[in-house]
Amino acid sequence: MDFSKHPQYIESFQRADSIEEIHAVCGELAGDLGFGGFLYGARLPTSLADAATIIITSYPEGWRERYEEKRYIHVDPTITHTHNNVTPLTWDRISYSGKNGEKIRQFMNEATEFGLHAGATLPVHSGQGEAAMLNVFSDSSSNKEQQRILSSLPHLQMLATYAHESVRRIIEIREIAPAAPVLTTRERECLLWTAEGKTSWEIGQILGISERTVIFHLQNAGDKLNVSNRRHAVARAISMGLLAPHIA
Amino acid sequence: MDFSKHPQYIESFQRADSIEEIHAVCGELAGDLGFGGFLYGARLPTSLADAATIIITSYPEGWRERYEEKRYIHVDPTITHTHNNVTPLTWDRISYSGKNGEKIRQFMNEATEFGLHAGATLPVHSGQGEAAMLNVFSDSSSNKEQQRILSSLPHLQMLATYAHESVRRIIEIREIAPAAPVLTTRERECLLWTAEGKTSWEIGQILGISERTVIFHLQNAGDKLNVSNRRHAVARAISMGLLAPHIA
DNA sequence: TCCGAACCTGTAAGAACTGACAGTTATTTC
DNA sequence: GAAATAACTGTCAGTTCTTACAGGTTCGGA
Q1: Does some domain include residue B205?
Q2: Nearest by CB to A245, which of B49, B231, B248?
Q3: Quick check: B248 pLDDT over 60?
Q4: For labeling, which of A77, B2, B39, B225 is most exposed (least CB within 10 Å)?
């Protein structure tokens, strides 16, 4: 297969500044590599329990409708795989055992009705629970085609990271998530111990300062995080990555 | 370049059940692909502010000592890149501008003294803040070599995910992190609203149950999470991914 | 039919947190 | 030298959490 346009796709992804452009690049590369269509899907957490879902796809209209209608998102093995893995998945290796096995088999059978006979899923994860996947499908499941898919996996995987990078860049520009405030050392320390369940008094003992001072720092941290109690502060700080282990 | 052994490496990674075996596979593939050495590094968060660091490497002894001694982990641009990106980095594209530019230049210069003339970094992220990278270096930085590195990136990237997968599998077997408990729907709901800063009474209003019942559920959740107050429960639940947005 | 799991509710005392009062000290920056 | 920032400390009233007491209902599986 011809991978010579690989660098061009990467450049196109890096230049893209709208979802439509990303769609175009994905479509082009899927076509060039001989695939029948693609689907890029990402979930970008915006708050604790909410996430923005971005879908960029050239899947057949009928299949997308069916998928919606039957709520196949709860069955789709490519999504499960992406959640639990970092490695590529070729669809011929999907397992039909387990309690959802029958549902999955039906799902895959229905997919073939719309031309998705074979394909692969390339997971991409980024920090803080962001997850994305690039699916490509082929309208044949011959041995030769399976082999072709297999050999294009490395390139697809790499392109998937660039696709994801550009989506993140574009979405971030539009500012879905609020920026994290800058905490002082003490504020971070106090928050961290709070997250470990310590009381103000205990934290004071740990840090060698008075209980009142701990309250002071936590109050300041709370103001910066725009919250009104410690439970909320802990949740915010963690999900903003403010308490994450530092390098080294 | 010859990528025909690609599937063999993958199989070896999947079969490996010790860090030493992973070392061997990485060494083999780096050698086969013409690289002078490799470094796989991962940070697997174990608790809120702590992470296990796993390093598997064939870097020159002298360079590793120097790196330790000078605490280059704070300077190393491959680590910064891995933290902030999902895409591969070829070392010739490292930027020397910015406030740490001079330090980074010195770092890279010293690296060349030990034979690291060119190379690439392949980031791998998995859920819950886990991050890893595969570095490979070459003892020449000729144009031809740069080209060679570039063309092997897709394969390296894919192999990096398999390397990371096997490390995760091995480490998980040895149980660094405790398993997440199963929460009931109500427990999860109450915890979620608690993480949003709501009081018991408020949560009762939201869920249409009494304040006492909310306390009851939070108590049970706390017991399962093995914590003694809500701040700790919120922290635990979030960092275990129990409150993460469901696929819907 | 009995059991466990999930869900629901009440009272009450003491511990912990929150918010508003009112400050001090040291360091850095303009 | 003034201003800003980080760190530090105290009291007090009111709110919320924690723990321990003692129950009840519903539903599905053994």
Answers
A1: yes
A2: B49
A3: no
A4: B2
Are B51 and B57 in contact by the 8 Å Cβ rule? The answer is no
Is B103 an 8 Å CB contact of chain A?
no
Asked if residue A54 and residue A101 are part of one domain, the reply reads yes
Residues A231 and A155 occupy one common structural domain: no
**Is residue A118's pLDDT more than 70?**
yes
Which of B187, B236, B197 has its CA nearest to residue A197? Answer: B236
pLDDT tens-digit map of A56-67: 999 999 999 999
Residue ranges of the alpha helices (H) in A58-173? 61-69, 77-84, 101-113, 143-173
Q: How many domains does chain A have?
A: 2
With beta carbons less than 8 A apart as the criterion, state whether B21 and B148 touch.
no
Å from the A219 CA to the C19 C1': 10
Q: Which residues of B touch A127 (CB under 8 A)?
A: 83, 125, 129, 131
* Residue B88 belongs to some domain of the structure: yes
- Mean of the per-residue pLDDT values for chain B? 92
Using 50, 70 and 90 to split pLDDT, how confident is the model at A128? Answer: confident
Q: Which of A38-42, A124-128, B181-185 has the lowest average pLDDT? A: A124-128
Residues A190 and A83 reside in one and the same domain: no
The whole domain housing A10 covers 6-173
Would residue B248 count as lying in a domain? no
